[in-house]
Amino acid sequence: MVSQITRGIKISVLTSFEGTYFKNYKIHFAFSYQITIENHSKDSVQLISRHWEIFDSLNNIEIVDGEGVVGKKPVLRPGELHTYNSSCLLASPYGAMKGYFNMINFTSTKNFKVIVPTFKLCVPFAMN
């Protein structure tokens, strides 16, 4: 698990290899990840959007921007957390993801970015 705190918002990530799949006549490596967002600040916040940079060892980079996470824009009061699961396909057995969440602080009404730390995606049978 990797974790990082930005402005009192803690992001923790767990990853798992789910298997290989054929798509468009190519093999793909499927990974799932679980993200937990914890509000350790004194203010209520809401996740508005996300930005991902997805890398694989073949030097492919995919940028993904979108509203919320898995169709939700969670509001977190102080001490609350939100956990969600998602997945991605890579063209190689090694990769990584990083990004950020755009959030709004309800007390100051200001937008801010919460960093999602870089997390590795690696098939277990390919590790030394």
Task: Give the tags.
128 residues, ApaG_domain, mainly beta, Immunoglobulin-like, ApaG_sf, 4-stranded antiparallel beta sheet, 0% helix, Co2+/Mg2+ efflux protein ApaG, 5-stranded antiparallel beta sheet
Integer-rounded radius of gyration: 16 Å
The level 1 CATH classification is: Mainly Beta
**Which bin fits the share of residues in helices?**
under 10%
Q: Averaging pLDDT over every residue, what do you get?
A: 95
Secondary structure elements and pairings:
Elements: E1 2-6, E2 9-23, E3 26-39, E4 45-56, E5 61-67, E6 75-76, E7 81-90, E8 94-105, E9 111-122
Antiparallel strand pairs: 1-2, 2-3, 3-7, 4-5, 4-6, 4-8, 8-9
Structure, explained:
This protein has 128 residues and is mainly β. It has a single domain (2-126), classed as Sandwich (Immunoglobulin-like), CATH 2.60.40. It is built from no helices and 9 strands. It has strands spanning 2-6, 9-23, 26-39, 45-56, 61-67, 75-76, 81-90, 94-105, 111-122. Strands 4, 5, 6, 8 and 9 form a 5-stranded antiparallel sheet that branches. A 4-stranded antiparallel sheet has the order 1-2-3-7, with no helix packed on it. Strand 8 (94-105) and strand 9 form a beta hairpin. The mean pLDDT is 95. InterPro entries: ApaG_domain, ApaG_sf.
